[in-house]
Amino acid sequence: MTTLVHYRIEDGLALIGLARPPVNALGQPLRAAILDACERAAADASVQAIILFGEHGLFCAGADISEFGTDASFAAPDLPGLLLRLTELGKPLIAAIGTLALGGGLELALACGYRISEPTARLGLPEINLGLLPGAGGTQRLPRLIGVAPALDMMISGQPIGAGRALELGLLDRLAGSIESLLDDARAFARELLAQGAPARRASRLDNPGESVATDFFSQFRAANEPRWKSRLAPRLVLAAVEAACNLPLNEGLAREGALFKEAEASAQSAALRHVFFAEREAGRIPGVGNDTPLRGIDKVAVIGAGTMGGGIAMNFVNAGIPVALLELKSESLDRGLANIRKNYEISVKRGKLTAEQLEQRMELLFGTVDYDDLADADLVIEAVFEKLEIKQQVFRTLDQVCKPGAILASNTSSLDVDVIAATTSRPQDVIGLHFFSPANVMRLLEVVRGKATAPDVLATTMKIAKRIGKLPVISGVCFGFIGNRMLEPYNREAHRLVLEGATPAQVDAVLTSIDMNMGVLSMIDLAGVDVNFLVREANRAATEHDPSYHIVGNELYKLGRFGQKTGRGFYLYEGRERKEDPEVPALAERIAAELGVARRESISPQEIHDRCLFMLINEGIQLLDEGIALRASDVDLVWINGYGFPAHLGGPMHYAEQLGLDKVLAGIRHYRQELGAYGEMWFQPAPLLERLVAAGQTRIEKV
């Protein structure tokens, strides 16, 4: 046996332990080792039953993603072929599932005749998150085991289920007493099966899984979900595969599944989603800061500001079991903030996501105060006050006086200079930016802003604590707006300018949502607040005052008190949640354009709207990489996918640019630089790195 599999025989039971750390990924070497071990057990007359388990506890987290798109993915034995062979063994084969059985790992368990799990294990088919579908029998075997509707839900959602739910559905045959007793309980289960003369595998519970749903189930499911899927391919392929399970014999269904899997694997969407998968893992690598960097302990956190943002930030830490001191200057504001946090948790209780007991446990971890002295023992303090430099500087002066040595002092600023804030303290090495996105207790992205004096251990500690509270941390250098909001500026600028030139807000937004952006940029401004957008611009007015037309439509809406959804009027009219076009906005734009001498057009093409908004977004991202504000192009992609609704199946703006062609992006920017006259000369300046990449014939965005 290889070191990838541990093989031993005990009283007629062959115990096959998967031993490829850390997660028993089913790459070709492990597949071959599993096949060899199972064939050996099948051929050994002394072996009556076989138990497959994770040697170090965890069963299997799935296929080896590094093989996808390569010949290794289908190198013999390929996973579908291996699992088909396991179903043919003439002896009971039992999967003993510890910790995780995900993707190919769950398909491996489905190929076994029987399944037992420890009670805390999670089981799922998350392939859709990579633009794929289960390709080793999952779409065919799972519906035959638990029925079409629950099987389809697991595949379309990509979310794992707990062992208890898996037992209810019939996915598991039984639960072990604990993770420690899993193997002993699996042995007992095997002997029980042998004593009963159980077959090597039971007949499928549902020979015709289509009988578990109505005759129009698939057409109704498709009609209900296609608007939400937009242009995503993978959900449609999953649905087609499950439909095949209802219409075809198993062998033909497996062949159909294989063909659909290859279609998904070859798609640009899956390549983009795999790019995102690896980008998330790469984002945690910090050049010059090794894994051996000592970390500071974070046992107590303080948050300054109990408003919507501060309360949301506090909830992240409380959810992770970390005590939080929440500070406000006035008792009324503090009470209101604590009440809002409780209200948020009560909503979770009503939705069944929390128990009443858990709500109280979390509230007990919150300590409200109006006294800065109560922050003296905090290990991490996060300021979440009004976005004005002078106010934040005063907060940090106070923190410098009251916080203990070694405490990390963080600002939640979304755009201001972290170095200027740090300079107000005697310990700039302890200061860092932690830009949470709203709502802070929901949004996954966290921009970690590294100041010029930020100590390596402060950076490493905040990256680790970010993951502990369920965030995706991405490092940014210091500049106005950091990665996300700095890129938002040219994207937003062109949307405003296009309205000035004759496009309607709905036309601009429709082009952006046509590529599956969650929202058009002008709808997003209405949601965030026209006033908020205006105040951010005001903080950086010196960079834009040379252009009298800059965001002029937004400025006029601000003057009119049209702040967006919260006032019922912004770029659009709002009646409840319904958004409607407002003829007053084009009329306003026409008047302003006439005053400024900006030529208006009756028709602006969707292609022009796409290129002007997105090419300038891309251009700014490339410039951020060149300046060293972003460490990697893939970091830029993560920020825009997780913070601004850029579609993950396009891979983020940098990956999208690579797919469009960097030469095409550069040519488009140069075209509008000439086409738009003085405005084009002012704003359509290609990033030098983009020019260098195209000149060198490069197709990937990386520093050269």
Kindly list the characteristics that best describe this protein.
alpha/beta; 2-enoyl-CoA Hydratase, Chain A, domain 1; six-stranded mixed beta sheet; Rossmann fold; 704 residues; N-(1-d-carboxylethyl)-l-norvaline Dehydrogenase, domain 2; 3 domains; 19 strands
Task: Summarize it.
The protein has 3 domains: 5-265, 2-enoyl-CoA Hydratase, Chain A, domain 1 (Alpha-Beta Complex), CATH 3.90.226; 301-476, NAD(P)-binding Rossmann-like Domain (Rossmann fold), CATH 3.40.50; 484-695, N-(1-d-carboxylethyl)-l-norvaline Dehydrogenase, domain 2, CATH 1.10.1040. The protein contains 29 helices and 19 strands.
Kindly describe this structure.
- The protein has 704 residues and is an alpha/beta fold.
- It folds into 3 domains: 5-265, 2-enoyl-CoA Hydratase, Chain A, domain 1 (Alpha-Beta Complex), CATH 3.90.226; 301-476, Rossmann fold (3-Layer(aba) Sandwich), CATH 3.40.50.720; 484-695, N-(1-d-carboxylethyl)-l-norvaline Dehydrogenase, domain 2 (Orthogonal Bundle).
- The chain is 48% helix and 12% strand.
- The chain contains 29 helices and 19 strands.
- The longest helix has 22 residues, at 606-627.
- The two termini are 47 Å apart.
